[in-house]
Amino acid sequence: MPIIRFREPRMKKEVKMGFAQRLRCGTKAMMTNLHVRMTKKTPAIKFYTSKNLPRNTRVCVFGPHPDDAAISLGGTLHMLTRPHEKNNVFSFALTSGHRGVGNHHDPKINRRLTPKIRAYIRKRETRAADKIIGIKTNFLDMDFYEKGKITALDMKKAEEALQAVKPKIIFMPAHGDIKQETHQFSHELLKRAINNYVRKTGEPLEIWFYETPYYSLSPRMLNVEVELAEKSNSAKIASLGKLKSQTARTNLEAEERLGDARKGIVEQELKHNGNRKILTKISPVANFSRCAVRRRLFGVSWKLL
Question: pTM to 2 decimals?
């Protein structure tokens, strides 16, 4: 299969952090972002609730691993997939994520855990989580996960997914999400596929970059915060419980704690901006960076909204 030649992004070695360190780093990053937002000129944040979320539109979600949709924006997807919203939500996992399944303590069982069986475990857990959130994930099994390079087949799969869905809104990992190599390749692949799609069709797109347990948006990127409804937040937490193989490895409890920490940041920002409509009970929130992708005379532009 021919390889698309491009300058490979510089990969940083994956850093494994414990629960306390991940929670401490995530909270510190958010507090730093808040300080910068209050002292420097940054984009205005648009707040979404269950009453003003996008409706009657086609939404495409891309996750580098099978569990990224549930972990990073499970509550938001649960709100978007409610029947009265009339949204068509399509979810795609770019890789099988089989390397994320840890070894068993029994050597005999561990020898039987081939990559195919590990991939099956990830897919089975993802389907169980999808039922709670209200989505159905399609697995694209990109070559870059094994080969370390983006192939022409990878580009073809991504572009065919966009052509089939014809989305108006796309959720994808951010450019600064560099803790994991798979997330970096996924961002580069999707950006190239989206550029080709917009260049061919001329259709404008809205891109929502999401946060992960390993990455928080910078103050100059953060411009959307979604207040999660209580039922949707509970659905997200319940879906995380289905990811048994990731519970010990990823420490999903840290994501729940960070969701609670984010709501304190929202309250302080509302007060700082002089917003009188401060909610008496602020629910956990999800942070995003929203930008518009348009076809121009000499290419495609990406601009923060």
Answer: 0.79
